[in-house]
Amino acid sequence: RSNPMIRVNGKLCGSVLLALALILFASLAYAELNLKGFADSYHAIRIDEPNDYLASRTRVRVEAQFLEELTTFFVSVNAVQNDVVTEESGVSLMESYIDYADESWDLRAGKQILIWGKGTGIQITDILSPRDYSEYLARDFDDMRLAVDAMKFRLLGEESDLEFIWIPTFYKAVLPTTESPWYIAGDATNDVYNAAVEPEHTFANSELALKYSLYLSAFDFAVSLFHTWEDIPTYHYTVNNNQKTYSPEYHRITYGALEFSIPLGDFVLLGEMALFHGRHYEIENNGATSHIMKDS
After folding, report:
1. Which of 29, 85, 233, 273 could form a disulfide with 196 if both were Cys (CB 3.0 to 4.6 A apart)?
2. Which of 128, 130, 154, 165 is CA-nearest to residue 144?
3. Residues 60 and 89: beta-carbon distance below 8 Å
4. Rounded to 10 degrees, what is the CA torsion of 293, 175, 193, 53?
């Protein structure tokens, strides 16, 4: 049972950050304003029966950046019409954060998308922001990241950076609902799925990340450590009279990672590797309970 004396409420945290953003917005009323945005639309139709729409989304993104000396306020808003995943339709806040940049350090606090790693289109070290898998084949990989409330602090050197990230509350990935054409059903129709129990919003359950980056003329190099939670639960199950009962559970995981980039003439060699501790994997088992193995 968690300690009630050190509880962090996610909605309260978000409200405080929004209030700070509004205060800053008022103070930057006469600051320099950069406004930009875009519109995009994609549609997909099933070529087999019943020839229905698998995706049909139109989006307008508006981004505003207010600059005032060393301080920046950034906000982005999405207006979406989704005729397949209808719960996405509407106007929503994408990002809203405050930046303060000095010569030797900078700070970003608020709702933001966190990106790590050197690779493109792969997810090895880039796991700080959870993903939206509601239309996982229709969307660009970069468009699947979800913003989280976080604080990012960096110490800036001439050839190196030290980065610290604190994510105070748990965020899970967005999975397709049972009504979605992207939902993957189980083999048996009589399986029972219990609701996943999410980690409580306490300080002890917050997520921490640390990264050291080195920038040299011959190569770039970075090592990182991230203490986090699974954003997709592990599905533990029991079997009774040929009926499986699933009990999803989110586990703590810690990973250490290495990334590098090396210029080779007209090309750049990019590399990432990670070592995870605490992840759970299901191995083949024909008994009455799921055989979930935890790495060590």
Report:
1. 233
2. 130
3. no
4. -130
Structure token pair of residue 192: 């029972």
Strand 192-193 relative to strand 243-249: parallel, antiparallel, unpaired? parallel
Helix (H, G, I), strand (E, B) or coil at 18: helix
**Rounded-to-integer distance, Cα 74 and Cα 7, Å:** 28
Q: In 63-118, where does DSSP find H-type helix?
A: none
Neighbours of 64 (CB within 10 A): 16
The pLDDT mean for the chain works out to 84
What does the alpha-carbon distance between residue 56 and residue 54 come to, in Å, rounded to a whole number? 7
State how far the Cα of 182 lies from the Cα of 190, in Å rounded to an integer: 20
Measured CA to CA, the distance from residue 9 to residue 24 in angstroms comes to 23
The burial class, CB within 10 Å (0-12 / 13-18 / 19+), for 293 is exposed
Residue that wins the pLDDT comparison between 22 and 65: 65
